[in-house]
Here is the input.
Amino acid sequence: MSITRIESGKRMSQAVAHGSLVFLAGQVAPDPTPDVAGQTRQILGEIDRLLALAGTDKTRILSATIYLTDIATFPEMNVVWDSWVPQGHLPARATVEANLAAAVYKVEIQVVAAR
Here is the structure.
């Protein structure tokens, strides 16, 4: 089985597809100036885009891990998540509080999807 690497850079690929699985790197907002809801919207758009490049979509997400710099923003993130994730296609999910790579990021989301 082949391995397809999507948007590879110096240290990592944004997505890697192998067989029937697609692994996305943790995604952060391209423009980190908005609040948690705004960053979450951007990230979910990036996830949609990368999944499409890998030949799949959000209805096939198997698991998601969400990192928040402040767990108190969990409700704000969930409002955006709930409007994006299709009912009937809910992935397994974990949400944790964590320090992210740069202080400007409030949210990071990593997913694994089926093709």
User: Anything to note?
Assistant: Strands lie at 3-8, 13-18, 21-24, 61-68, 92-97, 107-114. The helical segments are 36-53, 74-84.
